[in-house]
Specification:
single chain; 9-stranded mixed sheet; 9 strands; 12% strand; alpha/beta; Arginase, Chain A
């Protein structure tokens, strides 16, 4: 039995037909973790869907109504880039419920992982880039509403910038006086910081600069990586971003969006990380979380490798890295 919980449901499957997003990956990750004995059945918790009230902690009532009644405009569906169906709404509500459960477990146990979620392109009033609603933001706001959490940090390591995350958490400002005068060493020309506008959620995004989305709302720290960035350079930028962020902000929960798409064989990415480099990335985030005693909730976000098996393996490696760091195995 693992010392932390994995949240999963067979109903995470997204009914989107033939698509670059590998909708079957969640079931295959679950199966692989069991088959390789990284986890056993008792390590998994089955989530319940988020309530509409939970979803509206982040998303507008009008947008939620459109999703629940199937009244999106053709343009709204086009921008979302996945075909609307009531079954798809259920899958996204369930993923959000999974992230709520994972956040709650992380606050109790120090770490938990939602084998799904990470839909970081969703905005309060619309979906984008395969993302209908923003499960991580919903989980943070639910924990805050319940009085279980004050300050959170998102660490987004998907190849695409977390534009929805940046937009959602840009509204509630914290005064610059709440930040230390010395925010650490400069991050360099590839990084942009917005420390004067930090709120109750500090957002970090490492992503390929020349990639989706075209318009990138500012995160607290954005690391805009050049094409074909490899393992060593990526890990250096990540270490620097985490160090700088944690000098400026003391989160009570870290939300790690562990995208598989910085992989060098990804169809929608242009970075050059190896499978080994991605696991080192995961270990670095987990080691920082453990050393600083910051609870961490993990979601998986994107992954579009030419071989779906590679995406599945990268996500399974994230769980293996967590086991190694938090259990010493």
């Amino acid at each position: 039995m693992l010392p932390f919980k994995l949240v999963y449901s067979d109903d995470y499957y997204l009914p989107i037909g033939a698509h670059v997003f590998p909708a079957e990956k969640y079931r295959r990750i679950h199966q692989r973790l069991i088959e390789t004995r990284v986890a056993e059945a008792s390590d998994f918790l089955n989530p319940r869907p988020a309530s509409d009230e939970d979803v509206m902690l982040v998303h507008t009532p009008d947008y939620v109504k459109k999703l629940k009644t199937g009244t999106l405009s053709p343009r709204e569906e086009l921008v979302m880039e996945i075909p609307y169906s009531p079954e798809l709404v259920h899958a996204f509500w369930l993923a959000a419920g999974g992230s709520i459960l994972a956040a709650d477990c992380a606050l109790k146990d120090g770490i938990a992982c939602n084998i799904g979620g990470g839909f970081h392109h969703a905005f309060p009033d619309h979906g984008e880039g395969f993302c209908m609603i923003h499960d991580v933001a919903i989980a943070i706001r639910r924990m805050q509403r319940d009085g279980k959490l004050g300050r959170a940090m998102t660490v987004d390591c998907d190849v695409h910038q977390g534009n929805g995350t940046a937009a959602i958490f840009a509204s509630k400002r914290m005064s610059a006086g709440a930040l230390p005068s010395d925010s650490g060493p400069a991050l360099g020309s590839s990084a942009k910081t917005n420390l004067g506008a930090v709120n109750d959620v500090f957002t970090i995004s490492l992503h390929q600069e020349n990639n989706y989305p075209l318009s990138k709302p500012p995160s607290t720290i954005d690391v805009n990586l050049p094409d074909q960035t490899g393992d060593d350079e990526y890990l250096g930028w990540l270490d620097n971003a985490l160090s700088s962020g944690l000098r400026a902000f003391a989160p009570e929960l870290m939300c790690y969006i562990a995208g598989a798409d910085p992989y060098r064989e990804d169809q929608l990415g242009g970075l050059a990380l190896t499978m080994e480099g991605l696991k080192k990335r995961d270990r670095l985030v987990f080691e920082v979380s453990k050393a600083r005693q910051i609870p961490i909730m993990v979601t998986f976000a994107g992954g579009y490798a030419r071989a779906v098996e590679d995406t599945v393996q990268i996500h399974c490696n994230t769980i293996a890295a967590a086991v190694e760091v938090f259990w010493g195995k």
